[in-house]
Write a sequence for this structure.
DNA sequence: CCGCATCCGAAACGATACTG
DNA sequence: CAGTATCGTTTCGGATGCGG
């Protein structure tokens, strides 16, 4: 299997950042660390369950850092790792394309 | 529902171009028009069914043009519309990120 | 050559209720 | 506040067989 053709990189990238929520969450984390319920407000349509799952996935991929502050009540902050910041360009381009999408005449 | 925040653009974009195959197909179509079985060879792991479905979806979104040449046997060519070419930047950035992904030490 | 129809399992996603 | 657990629905994706 010739895995090294450039197209496969696209596939790998999409497998990691594909899905409805991932890049959306990253787009907010790019502005700075966020708490759990803060992200829920930022992304009103996401369910609690999906938010947990997606954050865990991003954490496991090394793109997001989860920090627990042992206060009462507990405080948890999510932030992008240096690796996670590599997604900034993708978010930018995606945002640009999305805006054009919503503006174009033909749906 | 405040739909106009920039993040939502990202979501809309991902809903259109998300999925395992879409951007991969676009990445090949960027090189020029392709026939059905040509794409099957380019993307060895895609099933006939998915190739049909994804091409139809891209066509319906106005990103891909399907041209039927009434020869015998029939010849069908898929090419990007001008709108479809707007995906070029996304593919580039995705490709770059994917290559880095495969190269980084920590999996 | 270029599909479509059908069936099926797997994965993504969502709603709701409950917990330290 | 920040989650788990459970369940149901929807979408994704593969296998196979048929048709113009």
């Amino acid at each position: 299997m010739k895995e090294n053709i450039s197209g496969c990189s696209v596939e790998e990238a999409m497998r990691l950042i594909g899905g409805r929520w991932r890049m959306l969450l990253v787009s907010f984390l790019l502005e700075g660390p966020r708490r759990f319920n803060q992200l829920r407000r930022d992304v009103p349509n996401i369910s609690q369950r999906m938010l947990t799952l997606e954050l865990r996935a991003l954490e496991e991929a090394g793109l997001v850092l989860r920090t627990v502050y042992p206060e009462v009540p507990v405080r948890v902050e999510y932030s992008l790792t240096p690796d996670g910041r590599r997604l900034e360009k993708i978010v930018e381009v995606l945002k640009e394309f999305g805006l054009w999408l919503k503006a174009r005449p033909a749906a």
Remarks:
- Residues 35-37, 48-49, 51-52, 68, 72-76 of chain B lie near DNA strand C (CB under 10 Å from a C1').
- Helices of chain B lie at 6-17, 22-29, 36-42, 48-60, 82-85, 88-103.
- Strands of chain B lie at 34-35, 64-69, 75-80.
- Chain B has one domain: 9-103.
